Protein 1
Amino acid sequence: MSAKRESLFSKKNMKLIKDPLNDSNPISIQVLGICSALAITIMLENAFVMSMSVLFVLIMANVVVSLLRNLIPDKIRIIVQLVIVATLVITVDQVLKAYVYEVSKQLSVFVGLIITNCIIMGRLEAFALGNKPGPSFLDAIGNAFGYTWILLVVGFVREVFGSGSIWGIKIIPDDWVYHINPDTGLTEGFYEHNGLMLLSPIALFLVAAVIWAQRSKNRKLIEEN
Amino acid sequence: MAVNKNSTGYTFGFAILLVVVCGVILASLAKILKDKQQANIANEKRQFILSAAGYASMDTLKTYEMSEIEELFNKTIQQNVYDFNGKPIAGVEAFSIDIVKEYKATKDSPKTRKYPVFSYKNENDEKYIIPMAGNGLWGPIWGFCALGKDKNTIEGIVFDHKSETPGLGAKIAEKPFQDLFTLTPKMVMKGEKYMGLKVVKGGLKDPDHQIDAIAGATITSNGVGAMMKTAFLPYMKAWKKVNN
């Protein structure tokens, strides 16, 4: 035991945070957790609450599983991970219902579906089971923020062009948008919100755009054939 | 340490302990947050009723404080409860009836069901808000429908659901679908005949009594229709008696 205790913020450990933000991003590179990225990014606020929920669940699950890693029987490890994740997800769901009821209604089933978010099970299985709590904590933060920034970018674009607002605050005045003036019966305005932005499929295009941008910046990421 | 991590006994012990710990955590959490969650649900119910009554849009009501909503509700809304034959039931508060539970409990015996009604009156208008509940595809759906002064024309409606599919059945809780009920006048009665309202596919043949269904959400749409068909009858009976 002569080796010096490795600092939590050593270069190797900081890589755990930095990599998932970019070169091994769970959404754009590993293409995990896409389902929720499509579903809840209509508004920035929803995307943010979802991201924070995932952040909480991922950090807690990663640390707990890492603490228990030497105790968990191999045969039931997936189920143990599921129980831990499910407990955390229900906690989040209950807290949202009590404190941000409106948002929790809009997120509806998707909070519950964090349980099935591949990012979480993926990190538990690939990292937390074989590493100490400290690095697992950092790994969770890195991956959760990798998820978060993509969601926020997609949410931002969808909200601005789909609803003309940012975080619920109108940036495109209602007067600009096509509408019928009730006094004169004439059509006024010159702008129309892009309805496609409100539908889930557009998130696929936006995520694809992120993937494209990322790979043209770093050509190493482009797969062969 | 001589504990065999992969022995059957250890595996069982670990599983049981884990489940007990998780169970205790969740149970205490549910207990702690219950009051707050129920306050949210009651607040939302008041908002639904006020919005169906046309007091203000749901979006406006959501900007109000919880206490303001409660005060407003108590000031402007009167409550009554009827039985299936339209007789008033005394001593029951309409607001406290959980309509989804009430409909579920009396699924096979609508005659024993309690039927609450909320009335909203101001100087030149009055509205009767009727709560209703039914089944969608995945779980219960419910709503509040406001009838105008003639106790026949629909003047406002709100629906909500527990777990309909987002983007399909869940659209019943959105404005475009709910607007269909008030864009053109919809009636509950056809002359003297009780009609309810039908939700139909492929064009309206009787636009006074029909609503266009949501594409891709047949079962939820049918559920709305079925819910509306059963909902109004006892009230019609009650009002007929009062009028005679």
Protein 2
Amino acid sequence: MGTYGGDEVAALVLSVGHTWTQAGYGGEDTPKSIFPTSVGWVDLPAEADQGDDADNSEDTQMQDVSQSSPQHGADSNNIHKKDADGGDLNPQPVGAAPVPRKNKTTKRGKYYVGDGEISCWRPDMEIKSPIKDGLIEDWDALEQIWDHAFLKRLRCDPTEHPLIITESSWNTREIREKLTELAFEKYNFPAFFVAKDAVMTAFAAGRPHALVVDSGGDMTSVVPVYDGYVLRKGIMRQSLGGDVLSEQVLNQFQSNGIDVVPQYLVAKKSPVEVGQKPIVTLRDRPATPSFHKMMQMRVIHDYKESVCQVAESTYNEQNINSRPQKPFELPDGYNSNFGADRFKVPEIMFNPKDFLKNPTPEQENFVGLPKLIFNSAQSCDIDFRPTLFGSVVLTGGNTLFPGFADRLHWELNSIPHSYKVKLHAPGNTVERKCGSWLGGSIIASLGTFHQLWISRKEYDETGSSIVNKKCV
Amino acid sequence: MSLSGVSLQKGCVESFTELKLKKAHKFIIYKLSDDLKEIVVDKAVSAGTYDEFLAELPVDQCRYAVYDFDYTLPDGERNKIVFYTWSPDDAKTRTKMVYSSSKDALRKALQGVAIEIQGTDLDEVAHDTVLERIRR
């Protein structure tokens, strides 16, 4: 059996989440690079690949891509090849009339990846995250992220380092196999490994058995881990995460007659008194709805980080009204003090029935986080439950609201059951945001781990299905 | 094999067998070797109270342990072997990661363990807590 023996070369560790991508070297305690997973692109005109003369514009776009990539000889070849592949995946039907944006049949032009690139205003730039519900949806965009992470951020040669990536616990066989193919066929990594993010988080918290509660931008999941294995039937998840909360904040603002104007539209602003109409000069910058939304969400994200808080015990309007207000200023200069509103939004995580305004039919079925955790533990074997309740591990950026962990602990103890609850919430924000990356980084740096990598040789002998044997 | 690839040193299982069959030890503490490549016996103690056992668990280091647990029921003496994963929250993340991902290597090699305790603070490994788990 050919095992991979290059211990002296640091492994690359990559964790692509819905909102953030974390990339770095094994053995380090923080990712070298964290950038948004969302990618931007400008659709090429629909007729671009029908007429020969229209093709020119596309060619220049492609050249742009290869020129802006680093100068590794092999890499620009890869990019070229991939662009061609991307075209094959999205064939343009002959004779299609001008296709509306977002239609799958339009061809995407140059991609924009990374914080500086996607937050820069460009007319007609669409923004989208390739990950939905923890699964990879858009492989073209995912490759852009890998390219960006390895070539632009880490600036390394993929053929020299083994790669370990994290995946969601409900990832499918097809996706893992496709990821394996991508790693070996396109990037030529010498060795590869896929680890479950919940297991990595549980291990990094020192617990082979744990109930991993992960609340991110896109969704919230509870995953029981026992002996380092995910108990699949106990996985509970719902698409109630930071994005839903942001959406609600946006609605709160709008129902108060306040328009959230993102930074890219503001040309000049003057200071105004608290609660007054902003005095602002706007730029004429027409943008796509997806770009505008992302920029609005960034403002709201700041708002959530600066003022939102969770009530430590049951939400009590009177009690909340006596809490201090906190000031926040929007990019257009409007500023106000926020009282009860700053508590109401995170409260949705605990009590969606009462606090989620205008829910969609899907959102009406959301349950509070304590209930979700309880349901997850209850669907596991009765012998496991005391241990699982005894090690609830909290991770994900959406759990960083002040008071979140205290409240969750309080709620879990108020549900009637006979178990002793222990909640582990790392105080260190890096650990909370990058828990699974960190686990991957440590494990990849162990001298003994080399026997577990999927080596190039094994891949060549068995094919991509080897991933389901070696990475469980 | 455990996820970390860490292996067992020869003496680990032998010490356990001595504890199980010959009652030569009351408890055994295992740890990872300094190069983090294998699990070794840190201490095998032939007699000691439960409190003396707990005193051997460091506050900021991870360990594995096996304790030969005695208790009395109305109809007589009982005896069970308990396996511990000791991983205090104050330990370094790296240490916690290596210990928890290597636990399987040791645990799977020890035949005859009645229950398994995952301990992160002294409360979780206290005599009463363990006794309650055993009698459940």
